[in-house]
Design brief:
By secondary structure, the protein is of the alpha/beta class. Helix content is 41%, strand content 13%. Helix 2 runs parallel beside helix 3, helix 6 packs parallel to helix 7 and helix 8 packs across helix 10. The longest helix is centred in the C-terminal third of the chain and has 19 residues.
């Protein structure tokens, strides 16, 4: 693993490398199969247009999000792509045994050598009851002391370097480095880079202290973006992985051929978020459903606040918004997520943004 496997390549006139965050959203009247087919089309499109990486997020118990198993989806995408980096944005580590994640991502690395990222978060990616069901425990263990321990254990499994005397010294994550020690063994030179994800200061500080790359969830925690990135950079200590900080931010961005259509689409996505935040999760509504919905004053206030942090409009407007966001945050990479009812709308959005920045033609 080298810094070159972390840092992206800037293409066209984009200020920094552009990447993709896919929530595998399921629209009203559509199925999870439809959503996953859109993900394949989106991965192949963005690969052909020069986007740097494609991440899938872990969520649970949300009808409108079909990404409960990132490793399974990434294996499917690996079979349909050949260059773009693939990764988790992220695996919610407290939901899993570290050895299981080391095995899953070691397997993905064997499938797509040199193309796999392992992004990790400490939130459950769901509500407390679902988190307890995932972990088969009423104790969610999300404290500041527990996550670093889980992270350290996972890295030990990935590197196969538990010290002598450790109870896991004879346990090996396979595929992994132990295969190189067997007679005739040859080990891949690659190991999935570990990224820390966050929406507040905890993971920013930890990523900096460990010298790891950091991904911040600007798309749902915009007010914390600049403070978290500042904290990451202030906390950063050079490591064997990176000699200087590298931070990307997740950005909600939706471009359409007409500004009015972009507004219709993000209104529907905001209604979906309102329902989720008020305990009524469902499929992503159509723009027509959102137009007919009677927003309460409080809901309308939420929608306006939410959409203020969604970069949307025509391609030129989105490009200007992304350029301004980059200038304001100094992010090293922009990871775009387009939330809309229709897969065709999402595909068109990435095409328009790629055209606006002069990215390579498909």
């Amino acid at each position: 693993m080298t810094a070159d496997e972390i840092r992206g390549t800037t293409r066209g006139s984009a200020p920094v490398p552009l990447s993709v965050l896919d929530l595998v959203t399921v629209g009203s009247g559509r199925t999870a199969t439809d959503a996953l087919r859109t993900s394949v089309r989106l991965a192949t499109l963005t690969e052909s247009r020069g986007f740097h990486r494609y991440w899938v997020a872990e969520h649970h118990s949300m009808p409108g999000v079909a990404s409960s198993s990132p490793a399974v989806i990434l294996a499917h995408l690996a079979a349909h792509t050949g260059r773009i980096r693939l990764g988790s944005g992220g695996v919610m580590l407290p939901n899993h045994a570290p050895l299981v994640i080391a095995e899953q991502f070691g397997t993905l690395e064997a499938m797509a050598p040199g193309r796999i990222d392992l992004g990790l978060g400490r939130a459950p990616g769901t509500d407390g009851a679902t988190a307890a069901a995932l972990r088969r425990s009423d104790s969610l263990n999300e404290g500041a002391d527990d996550f670093p321990q889980q992270l350290a254990e996972l890295v030990r499994f990935l590197d196969d370097d538990f010290p002598d005397g450790h109870p896991y010294r004879r346990i090996h994550a396979v595929p992994g480095p132990v295969q190189a020690t067997a007679p005739g063994g040859v080990q891949s030179p690659h190991r999935p880079p570990v990224w820390l994800l966050g929406s507040s200061g905890f993971s920013a500080r930890l990523a900096g202290a460990l010298g790891l790359p950091f991904a911040f969830a600007h798309h749902f925690s915009a007010q914390n973006t600049v403070p978290a990135l500042d904290l990451y950079r202030e906390s950063f200590r050079p490591s064997a992985v990176l000699d200087e900080p590298y931070a990307l931010i997740g950005v909600s961005a939706l471009a359409a051929d007409e500004e009015r259509e972009a507004r219709r689409q993000v209104r529907a996505a905001a209604l979906n978020m309102i329902r989720l935040r008020t305990g009524r999760p469902g499929l992503v509504p159509t723009p027509e459903e959102a137009e007919a919905y009677a927003f309460s004053p409080l809901e309308r206030e939420f929608m306006d606040s939410w959409n203020a942090n969604v970069v949307h409009g025509t391609a030129d407007e989105v490009r200007a918004g992304l350029d301004e966001l980059h200038k304001r945050t100094g992010a090293d990479e922009l990871m775009l997520t387009a939330n809309a009812h229709s897969g065709e709308v999402r595909l068109r959005s990435y095409e328009l943004i790629a055209d606006a920045y002069g990215l390579p033609a498909a």
